[in-house]
Specification:
Strand content: 5-15%
Number of strands: 28
Oligomer: single chain
Largest sheet: 7 strands, mixed
Radius of gyration: 50 Å
Strand order of the largest sheet: 6-7-23-8-17-11-12
Shape: extended
């Protein structure tokens, strides 16, 4: 390594592990002298000094992948993590390994649904490092390769392994979801199993409040479609000893404290505060900060419900936990016999009784199993008494056994309820297992944990080595086998048979008299010369193992006890006979062979080794992904980074081992473009030539005579240390260039100084000569001055006398003139003041009079509007009452009709009488109509008279106003008189009198006007009542005609001979006609004619014949509509032909007035079918235009119906009597719609439902177009967010054709412009209304804004200066397009780009460090939140000019704001959400789209083929 003066290095430090330094002198012997960042000068060995990147090369927020580090070494990795952690970037890649640093604070913006959407399907490494990226990569690899995956999460206690596992499972359930047809809530049960297992398997340790005391492997199973089909959970090495023994300040398992805080349940089980129980009060910590045990208890019960544990089993579980707590409070004292024990006191007896009651077993048998032991011999059973210590050990063994089996039952129950998919061929396993542990005192648990970590480290090393090989193979470089240290010797030392540590431990446990001392002695005898095993210095029994993460010393005094897992037969027999089915199920009945011995030995270490071996086999069959969790400090505080602790964790997690493996090969990898950009200045002679980047790279390396490098397909691979040589050579070139610049600068300074000195000499000489000349000139001037002085003194004396006289005259004149001017000014001032007073007075009088008139007019208007509203209310009430009366009349007529059917024989006589009565009634009605007409004419005359009177009053009011204006002119004429004040008073009195008279006249006019209004109301009421009477008479007349028509048909169809036998049939036919009114009375789409409305059809067809004709006509109508929908009928004068034809046909067929019809559903289904089959680019805009036009026509024609708009009065045609008569006689032309442009019809429920369906159809088409546009636009935006690498200009390389470069920069944005032009062309060709075009373009630009902005915040390579310029130029192109598209179609599209415009504008500004936070928030980025600005500032790096981001003070201010705002979930996300709502309503469409007149639409030629469309052809002719 080439170390020279000024080199930037890392040196070791006792407190900070590594500290930045600079070499201040060359090598002194075998050491170099460096100056640390703390200001100390130290000597360091060159092999313990590592090069570091210069400050200019370092990025403000570090690198997201540590393989991109210039110098990949231990301090570089540590410092990069520290920089990212300071910016709350807690995730960092090391190749494919994710390092997660626990932030110890909530960062919900990183884990919301929107963030999961961003990482869904994104290529690994494209976005910022995240746990979702690892989960997504495993899921995509499983789907594409059909191979099971595994995610290994490791780290020490408190590093966040459990939370990371939750996030992985959360993302997998989000992206996987549920299988089709599977009603099981698998994903929720898998997620809810976490809090359940945490309650029973997690506890507080010294380093973590929620530490997992067991290993967990969650296997999530997927079907062939990638949906979650099942899950399984496996657990490893539950820490059983924690149930009975804990140390301060740790805690027991959470479930015990939750049960004690459960309230009623705790009282039911006789539980109290945890301090009253021996298994819990060994530590003084009973509560956790910020955690409520009562709330956690409810969460645990809710999780049990979701998992599927019944309430009976839940009660049994908590009863078992309570029994364990009572069991721990049982104390023993020596008995009467030798080595015997009894219950100590009454308190212990109470707890014994409670434990027996909760276990539902016999209390005496429980006491016997605790205090005695039965030994089976050939002669019989021998009962041996146990002393106090043995009884306590028996009690603790029972508690551990019960809890262990309870935990296993929970795991089995979770697996059973979640359900395993035995047919699943693809799984993703998430391993949450304890990390490497090394404490001051290490026991058997640490030995097993570290053994598991040695196994996983071996698997990790193989994976890293494999990834290195794949990288080399992918880049097609030549490579040989890389030697790296394997830890197989440590694994052999621990697990190899027959003399491994586990084998020796099991052998020692088999002998009752063995102790930890004999075990240690045998261990040292067998492994005396082993390099990985050492004997502890200050202990005869402790031993030290050199693990991959360092040396760990184990205390063996509890190894044998913790490895022995005796199953006491008496305990099993006692609890298997429990009356509680749950407890009995935990302890199945033992076989005879097992029950012979009171103790059954089982090795914990051997069982753990078997489980671990099964786990490794599972992992070896999957593709692994690694996440290393790191705990930043031991205080569990945010923004605190302890370097020594983290360095130790990186070693324990194997991260530094991965770095070491990488260093053994080619640790430095650079893309050719990056390499040429940085080191191209080393060979400037090649830069001007047209070499490819790969050839340039090779020439640079050959020129520097470097060897052993490899040139891959896209990258150059360098050996360790070669990047240092390149940087050193680059620094030399830069130093040489700097010295050359300094030489030129000094030359310039010297030349400038010489020129300035020479100019100064010239100036001095000129000054001297000038001084001599001035002295000579002064003598001559003094002589001339004396003569001149005498002359001027005489002149001055004379002039002074003259000026004195002149001044006195001028003063006298000015005083006289001033006096006269002031007198004139005062006169004018008084005159002007009087004029102003008069003007103000007149203005006040006129304003008061105007306001008085205005209030009077407003009062009149209010009274008139009140009258209109009351009249409308009365009309609506009368309509409602009339509807009820008609319903009663209808029921009465039905009963009368039923009576008539039984008297068919008398039909002729009844018909004659009915016709006579009808003629009489018609004559009466005609007379009544004439009388009503007369009354109406009289009312009109009265109204005209009242209007004339009102006009006369208005004329009088105008005359009075004219008189008033004349008086005002008279007042103005009197203004010239000086004594105007007295005259004004008199005129004021006269004006007041006139004003009072005018007010009296106005009051009289208002009274007369009110009387006129009341008379008008009475006339309107009479008119409305007459109108209602007319309508009721018309309806009665139509009902009578229909009844008469039915009776005629019945009379013709039934003969007199068959009266008796035909009655039942006639009655059934009639009832059938009532149930199907459209068959008998009015066909659905039959056009009514005047003959049908006036004269009955006496020679009609039979019932079956008419039904058949109606069905044929109905089918013909459907075929006609189907062809109109399927064929592209085009547009006529900008009007959609299909919409106009469909609308006119529906109006002609009276479909809107039908009570029941299926034609509307047929139209909607037809449109949906066409949308599925046709080309989306052409069919969607076509039908958006047609559907919106049809909706507008429907909306405007049905607007008068009260069902659509409750506040709009129903239009009834003309207000006059002829208009009402015309409305009463239903003309077929009015139904067709040829009388008016758009007729108003009375809509029924199907028509209203059709309008709603059509609205939904328009929204659906709009949504489909929008979604298709987003799909087409997404790949284009992906290439527009980052400047293409081919467009970069290398350092020192001159571009001879700048136009080509600019063209390459904008080529990607040209695709966006072409896409927008194509979109606009398609929409305009299909005559889509500008309202929809404007909404679509706005949403497209909103999507562009969201996509570009989110990509900018998620991809670090996009937050650069050059990339900001590139995106800014593209936004300028979009602005040009918006201007050319005009506001009619573009709308507010430019404002939709606010976020990306402000973000890009911030990227390209200079001198960011001088900007304050207020300037950034208010001036530069007002639309962006602090979190978004913070994200941009921390990710920004200047790749063009090398400038820095904002100052550290601004970053600190933003971090402080974010820390305060972290709990506000609504503002925590820095990403923008895509709005998927429909940006308009039916009313918006109706108001924005112009009226379409369907009458003058040209009909296609093929319509003449259909008889049902002849009315359209005839109308066109």
């Amino acid at each position: 390594m080439n170390l020279r003066k000024g080199s930037k290095v890392w040196v070791e430090d006792k407190d900070l592990a590594w500290v930045a330094a600079e070499v201040v002198s060359d090598s002194v012997g075998r050491h170099v002298q460096v100056l640390t960042a703390t200001g100390k000068k130290v000597l360091a060995a060159p092999e313990r000094v590592f090069l570091r990147a210069t400050d200019d090369d370092e990025e403000h927020g570090g690198v997201d992948d540590m393989t991109k580090l210039t110098y990949l070494n231990e301090p570089g990795v540590l410092y990069n993590l520290e920089r990212r952690y300071a910016l709350n970037d807690i995730y960092t890649y090391t190749g494919s390994i994710l390092i997660a640093v626990n932030p110890f604070t909530k960062l919900p913006h990183l884990y919301n649904v929107h963030m999961m959407e961003q990482y869904k399907g994104a290529p690994f490494g494209e976005l910022s490092p995240h746990v979702f990226a690892v989960a997504d990569a495993s899921y995509r690899a499983m789907i594409s390769e059909h191979q099971s995956q595994s995610i290994l999460v490791s780290g020490e206690s408190g590093a966040g392994k459990t939370e990371t596992t939750k996030l992985i499972m959360q993302y997998l359930t989000f992206v996987g979801g549920r299988a089709v047809g599977d009603d099981r809530n698998v994903e929720q049960q898998v997620l809810e199993s976490n809090p359940l297992l945490e309650a029973f398997g997690n506890a507080r340790t010294v380093r973590n409040d929620n530490s997992s005391r067991f290993g967990k492997f969650v296997e999530i199973q997927f079907d062939t479609n990638g949906r979650i089909s099942g899950a399984a959970i496996r657990t490893y090495l539950l820490e059983r000893s924690r149930v009975v023994q804990i140390t301060d300040p740790e805690r027991n398992y959470h479930c015990f404290y939750q049960l004690c805080a459960s309230g009623r349940d705790a009282e039911k089980y006789k539980l109290d505060h945890p301090s009253h129980f021996h298994y819990l009060n060994q530590s003084k910590v009973y509560e956790l900060d910020g955690v409520s045990s009562a709330e956690e208890y409810m969460k645990t019960k809710r999780a049990m419900d979701i998992v599927g544990i019944s309430h009976e089993d839940q009660e049994a579980i908590f009863r078992t936990l309570a029994a364990i707590l009572h069991l721990g409070n049982i104390e023993f004292s020596p008995g009467k016999e030798h080595d015997s024990s009894v219950i100590k006191d009454q308190k212990s007896s109470f707890h014994l009784q409670m434990a027996a009651d909760l276990f539902m077993c016999d209390v005496n048998l429980l006491l016997a199993t605790l205090c005695t032991r039965t030994i089976q011999t050939r002669e019989g059973s021998i009962i041996k008494a146990l002393d106090c210590n043995a009884a306590v050990a028996s009690r603790d063994a029972l508690a551990k056994t019960v809890y262990s089996r309870l935990f296993d039952w929970l795991v089995e129950k979770i697996n059973r309820s979640v359900g395993q998919d035995m047919n699943s061929q693809m799984q993703i396993g998430v391993l949450d297992i304890y990390g490497f542990e090394s404490f001051k005192h290490n026991s058997f648990e640490q030995f097993c944990i570290n053994f598991a970590n040695e196994k996983l480290q071996q698997h990790f090393n193989e994976h890293v080595f494999k990834m290195e090989q794949e990288e080399y193979r992918r880049e097609e470089i030549n490579w040989s086998y890389i030697e790296f240290i394997d830890n197989q010797d440590v694994l052999d030392l621990i697990e190899k048979k027959p003399i491994g540590i586990i084998a020796l431990l099991d052998e020692a446990c088999m002998f009752p008299k063995s102790t930890h001392a004999t075990f240690s002695t045998k261990l040292f005898q067998n492994f005396r010369a082993h390099p990985r095993l050492e004997k502890a210095k200050f202990s005869e029994t402790d031993f030290t193992i050199s693990h991959y993460a360092g040396k760990v010393t184990y205390q063996t005094n509890t190894f044998l006890d913790k490895n022995r897992d005796y199953v006491v037969v008496e305990h099993c027999n006692l609890l298997s006979s429990s009356k509680c089915p749950f407890v009995a199920g935990l302890f199945p009945v033992l076989s005879e062979e097992s029950s012979r011995s009171s103790y059954k030995f089982s090795s914990v270490a051997s069982r753990f080794k078997q489980q671990l071996q099964a786990l490794m086999e599972t992992l070896n069959s999957t593709e692994p992904h690694y996440i290393r969790c790191v705990k930043p400090n031991s205080l569990n505080r945010p923004q605190k980074f302890e370097n020594p602790s983290i360095l130790h964790q990186l070693r324990c997690g194997g991260v530094l081992e991965a770095v070491r493996i990488s260093l053994a090969g080619y640790p430095t990898r650079r893309t050719y473009s990056d390499f040429v950009d940085r080191f191209g200045l080393l060979a400037l002679e090649f830069m001007d030539e047209s070499y490819e980047e790969k050839a340039l790279t090779e020439k640079i390396l050959r020129k520097l005579k470097l060897e052993n490098f490899q040139l891959g397909r896209t990258k150059v691979f360098l050996r360790a240390g070669q990047i240092g040589i390149l940087d050193s050579r680059r620094a030399e070139v830069l130093d040489s260039a700097a010295r050359c610049i300094q030489h030129r600068w000094r030359t310039f300074i010297a030349h400038r100084n010489f020129v300035s000195i020479r100019a100064a000499a010239f100036v001095l000489q000129a000054l001297c000569r000038g001084c001599l000349a001035r002295k000579l000139y002064g003598v001559k001037r003094e002589t001339a001055a004396a003569i001149s002085l005498q002359k001027y003194v005489r002149w001055w004396l004379s002039r002074r006398a003259f000026l004195k006289l002149s001044l006195a005259a001028i003063v006298i004149q000015s005083n006289i003139r001033g006096f006269s001017i002031r007198e004139r000014f005062l006169h004018r001032k008084r005159h002007k003041a009087a004029t102003v007073i008069q003007a103000c007075w007149r203005m006040c009088k006129f304003r008061s009079a105007f306001q008085h008139h205005q209030t009077s007019i407003i009062a009149i208007q209010c009274r008139w509007r009140q009258k209109l509203a009351k009249r409308e209310l009365r009309r609506l009430k009368q309509v409602a009452n009339e509807a009820g009366a008609l319903r009663l009349a209808k029921n009465k007529l039905e009963r009368q009709l039923e009576d008539l059917t039984w008297r068919v024989q008398l039909e002729k006589k009844l018909r004659v009488s009915t016709e006579e009565a009808k003629s009489v009634e018609i004559s009466k009605l005609q007379k009544l109509l004439e009388s009503l007409n007369l009354e109406l004419d009289a009312a009109k005359l009265a109204t005209i008279n009242e209007c004339n009177k009102n006009a006369m009053l208005q004329n009088q009011l105008e005359l009075s106003l004219k008189e008033k204006s004349a008086l005002e002119r008279e007042l103005v004429a009197m203004a010239e008189i000086r004594k105007e004040n007295a005259v004004l008073k008199s005129s004021l009195d006269s004006l007041e009198k006139k004003n009072s008279t005018l007010e009296l006249e106005l009051i009289k006019a208002q009274k007369e006007n009110n009387n006129t209004i009341e008379k008008l109301r009475e006339v309107e009421q009479k008119c409305s009542s007459l109108q209602q009477n007319m309508q009721s008479l018309e309806e009665k007349l139509s009902h009578l005609e229909d009844e008469n028509h039915v009776l005629r048909q019945k009379a013709l169809s039934v003969s007199p001979k068959s009266n008796r036998f035909g009655l039942p049939k006639a009655f059934s036919d009639y009832t059938g006609s009532l149930s199907l009114p459209h068959v008998d009375r009015k066909p659905i789409f039959e056009s009514p004619t005047p003959s049908k409305l006036i004269t009955p059809f006496s020679h009609g067809l039979s019932e079956s014949r008419r039904t058949k004709l109606t069905a044929e006509r109905y089918q013909e109508n459907l075929e006609f509509l189907s062809r109109c929908i399927k064929e592209n009928l085009g547009f006529n004068n900008g009007k959609p032909v299909a919409a106009c034809i469909i609308y006119k046909s529906l109006v002609h067929w009276q479909a809107f007035e039908s009570e029941r019809t299926a034609i509307f559903d047929y139209i909607i289904e037809g449109i949906n079918d066409v949308l599925k089959v046709g080309d989306e680019n052409s069919i969607l805009p076509y039908w958006l235009s047609n559907a919106s036009a049809l909706l507008c026509l429907l909306q405007r024609s049905l607007r008068s119906n009260g069902l659509l708009t409750a506040n709009t009065p129903r239009t009834t045609g003309s207000t006059g009597l002829p208009g009402r008569i015309a409305y009463g006689i239903k003309s077929p032309f009015k139904y067709i719609g040829f009388g008016d442009g758009i007729p108003h019809v009375e809509a029924r429920y199907p028509a209203i439902l059709f309008k709603q369906q059509l609205t939904a159809c328009v929204e659906k088409i709009f949504g489909l177009i929008r979604d298709n546009l987003k799909k087409e636009l997404s790949p284009l935006l992906g290439s527009c967010i980052q400047v293409p690498k081919t467009a970069r200009v290398h350092a020192g390389k001159l571009s001879r054709s700048p136009g080509v470069q600019q063209q390459s920069h904008t080529s990607q944005w040209d695709n966006i412009i072409k896409f927008l032009d194509s979109l606009m062309r398609r929409l305009r060709e299909n005559h889509v209304p500008s309202f929809f075009i404007r909404k679509l373009i706005t949403q497209v630009f909103s999507f562009i804004n969201i996509s570009l902005f989110n990509s900018l915040l998620l991809r670090r390579e996009c937050c650069t200066f050059s990339n900001g310029e590139y995106v800014k130029s593209g936004l300028a192109e979009l602005e040009k397009w918006i201007v050319s598209a005009k506001e009619e179609f573009a709308g507010t599209s430019w404002h939709e780009l606010n976020y990306i415009r402000q973000a890009v504008g911030f990227l390209v500004i200079h001198q960011k460090r001088k900007k304050s936070l207020d300037e950034i928030r208010q001036d530069l980025c007002p639309a962006l939140t602090v979190r978004q600005i913070y994200r941009i500032c921390t990710m920004y790096w200047d790749d063009k000019y090398g400038t820095q981001s904002v100052s550290n003070e601004v970053v600190a201010q933003m971090r402080e704001i974010l820390n305060k705002d972290n709990h506000n979930l609504s503002s925590n996300s820095f990403l923008l959400d895509d709005d998927l709502s429909i940006p308009f309503s039916t009313e918006d469409i109706d108001m924005a789209i112009p009226v379409t007149d369907p009458a003058d639409t040209h009909i296609p030629a093929f319509l003449s083929e259909y008889p049902c469309a002849q009315f359209l052809v005839q109308h066109e002719k």
